[in-house]
């Protein structure tokens, strides 16, 4: 498979609280090729956003995608992986406030997935009527409800 586009989302009911993550993968022609989701009983919104992208990239790797566009409504994920992570690694996984980076194990896992794939990240506005972002949001809510 040459190029795929994957929409991702994660969320929590409370923060921390019951959470869910989801992704929808599209072939180059725009056809939906996969939807996957999962959740955790006690987690945070940021952890679920990261888990969605990690799971999406695992799927893309299994599909032998040559390039992947990740569409996320999380500035935390997009900025973290495209900008902040370089500084975090240089500074011994400390943020700009000299505090330990939260969710380091997930950032390291995501960084490993990105370094082995041709991946780009695109921010999309959440809750703005974007079809596949909205589908991910619905899937996330369904995962959270399993724990309520």
Model description:
There is one protein chain. The chain is of the alpha/beta class and 148 residues long. The chain has a single domain, classed as Ribonuclease H-like superfamily/Ribonuclease H (Nucleotidyltransferase, domain 5). The chain contains 4 helices and 5 strands; from the N terminus they run E-E-E-H-E-H-H-E-H. It has a 5-stranded mixed sheet with strand order 3-2-1-4-5, with helices on both faces. Helix 1 packs parallel to helix 3. The radius of gyration is 15 Å and the shape is globular. The chain starts with a strand and ends with a helix. The mean pLDDT is 95.
Please give the alpha-carbon distance between the first and last residues: 38 Å
Largest sheet: 5 strands, mixed
Query: How many DSSP H or I helices?
Result: 4
Supply the helix-strand structural class.
Answer: alpha/beta
Strand content: 25-35%
CATH architectural designation: 2-Layer Sandwich
H/E element string? EEEHEHHEH
Mean pLDDT comes to: 95
Nearest-angstrom radius of gyration? 15 Å
Q: How many β-strand runs?
A: 5
Low-confidence stretches: none
Number of domains: 1
Helix content: 40-55%
Which fold name fills CATH's third level, the topology? Nucleotidyltransferase, domain 5
**Neighbour order of strands in the largest sheet:** 3-2-1-4-5
The CATH superfamily is Ribonuclease H-like superfamily/Ribonuclease H
| Overall spatial form | globular
Question: What's the CATH first level?
Answer: Alpha Beta
């Amino acid at each position: 498979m040459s190029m795929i586009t994957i929409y991702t989302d994660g969320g929590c009911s409370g923060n921390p609280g019951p959470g869910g993550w989801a992704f929808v993968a599209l072939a180059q022609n725009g056809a939906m090729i996969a939807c996957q989701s999962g959740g955790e009983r006690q987690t945070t919104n940021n952890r679920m956003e990261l888990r969605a992208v990690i799971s999406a990239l695992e799927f893309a790797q299994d599909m032998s995608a040559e390039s992947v566009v990740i569409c996320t409504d999380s500035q935390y994920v997009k900025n973290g992986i495209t900008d902040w992570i370089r500084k975090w690694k240089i500074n011994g996984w400390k943020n700009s406030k000299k505090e330990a980076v939260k969710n380091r194990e997930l950032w390291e896992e995501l960084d490993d997935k990105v370094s082995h794939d041709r991946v780009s990240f695109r921010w999309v506005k959440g809750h703005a009527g974007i079809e596949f972002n909205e589908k991910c949001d619905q899937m996330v809510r369904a995962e959270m409800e399993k724990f309520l």
